[in-house]
Predict the 3D structure of the following.
Amino acid sequence: MGRSSYDPTGSPAGLPRQTRRQTLKIAAAGLAASTAAAAVPYIVSAQGVRAFHGAWPYDMPPVGHYNSFVPQAITLGIYWDLMEQPLGMYYWQEQRWLPLLATEWATIPPDTFSVRLRQGVTWSDGSRFTAQDVLTTWTLGRLLNWVPWRFLDRVEAVDAYTVNFIMSRPTSVMERYVLRERVRAHSVYGEWAARVQGLLDAGLGPDSEEWRALRAEFNNFKPRELVGTGPFKIDPRSITEAQLTLVKVPTAWNAAQIGFDRIVLYNGETPTVTPVVLAKNVDYATHGFPPATEQQFARLGLRILRPPVFNGPAILINYNDPALAPLRRKEVRQALMYAINREENARISLAASGVPLKVIAGFSDNLVPLWLTNETISVMNPYPYDPARAESILLGLGFRRGPDGVWQDPDGNRMEYEILFQAEFADWSAAGKNVADQLTKFGVKITPRSITFTQFNNEVFAGRFQLATGGWGAAHPHPHFSFVQDFLFYNPPQAPGPGSGFPLVQQTDTIGEVDLMSMTLQTAEGLDVAAQKELIQYLARIFNELLPMLPLWERYGNNPVLDGVRVTGWPPDDDPIYKNSPYADSFVIMMLYEGRLRPAR
C-alpha cells in the first residue's frame, strides 16, 4: 500500500527515549558522519541520467493540488520528506536523530522546547529559510486543530534561526511533534498565517464563525507549486496519469549528498503498480502486495523487505447508526472479537507480513515490552478465536438466532450490516472480505462494499458507513500517538464530521468513568516518561476492555527491492535501519540522504 500511517500533525515516526533535560544538544556531527560517503562524486551513466524509480498514488490536477496542509495534496507520501523537509528524521533502533532543517534542540524545563535552525538554506523559489517559515507552519497547524496545539501555548522566534515552543501542558513528545513536522514556505502561506494571527489578536478562536470560515477558505487554497527546501521538486510538466518525476534542486543545501538526478514515481495503488514492479521498472515499493504477487516477485529475483509498520487494520463501528445499536455494548464487541479468526485473516491478507496481535493494547506488539509491565499484560484479554465463547456471551445478553441463523438482539432486530473497505488496498480489502465471510458464518450477516481509497476517509468522517476497515495504532515511538489514532482520529472533535461517533466519556471496569480525550493527552504530559508509563498501563487496559474498534493484526512490510539495475547500496536484512517503519521515518529516504543508496551505474 502506498500510504502512510496516521500522524496527528501530518508527519511520521521513531523508538522511546528519555526526555532531554540537558542544555542544547549539538546534533550536526551525526549528519556529517553518516553522510561522509555522499561527498564522493557519482559517475553519470551513458544515458546521462541517474534515476531512482519508486511508486506512490496521487490525484491528477486539478483534484490533486499543492496545498500540503489539506487532503488530496500531491505530497507523495514518504517522498514528501525530500521536498518540504522536516527538521529531522529518527533512527528507531539506534534512538538518535538525523538532523535536517534543525541542527540542535533541547527541552528546557519547565515548559520550553527550543530548536536551532540550519543556516544557509534556501527554498526552491529562492526565498531564504528562517524561523518565520516555522512560525507560519505552526500557525496554520493551529487553524487546522493539530493535536500538538492541545499542549502548546505559543510558538516564538527568538531570532532568525531559533524557535521556542512554549508548552501550556509540558510533554516529552513535543520533540517528536516538532522535529518530524515538515516546514512550509512563508512565501507561499504567509498571508494565510497572518490572517489566523489576526483572528487570535482579535480574541477569536476555533469556536468562532470567523475561524471556521477561514479554515473552510484555506481548505480550497491551491498554490501554483510545491515549494520546498529539499533536494527534489515536482516537475509539473511530467505529471501524467501514469507517472511523474521529481527533479534535482541544485541550490538545495544537501543536494550534493544525493547521487540521483531525478526520482520517477509511478502512480497508483496495488493493482496498478503491480505490473510495473513485475516489469522491473520500480526499484522500491511500499504497497501491500497480496501473497500470490509476493511469490511472483520472489521468482523474478526481487528482494522482499519486512520492516515493522507498527499498526494495522481494524474494524471501525459507526456508533451513530441506530442499526448498530447492539454494538454500543462492549460485551457485544468483545463477542465479535472472539468470533473472528484473526490468524486466518492475517494469513489470507498478507501471508508472512500479517502478524496476529498477541496483546490487544491499542499499539504495536513491538512497543509493548517497552511500555507495559508483565503484570499489566497478564490481566489483559488476548481474545483468542473462540466462537463458542462468542455465542455464549450473546446468549447471556438475551440475543437469539433467527430462523435463518442470523443473530437478533433482545428487541428482535437482525444483526445485518455492511462493511466498507478500500478497493485498491489489496491487503485491507482482503481483510474486510474475510471478516465479512467469517462473521456471516457466525450469524452476523455482513455485506462487503468497496470504495476507492481516496474517498474512504471522507465517507468515514461523514459517518456514511456501518462497519469499515480503518486503522489502529500509529508508527510513532510513544503510545500516545497510537491512542490518538485509536480514540480521537475517527471521533469528534478531532474528526472533521460525525465520524465513528464513539463517546469519549465511558464507564469502565478498569477504573470507573473515564474521559478518553483527557487520558489520551495525559499519556504524553510531563517530562517524566516513567510517570507517563503509569497512565499508559491503564489506557492500554481500557482499550483492551472497551474495544472502540476491533483490531485484526499487525502489518509488516512486504516491500520489493530491485537491486543493482538503477540503485545499489541496499544493506543486509539485519541492518538496524530496517527497524524503522517503511512509512514513518522511511529508511529509504534516510538512506538517500546518507548516500547509502546510490546509482548502480
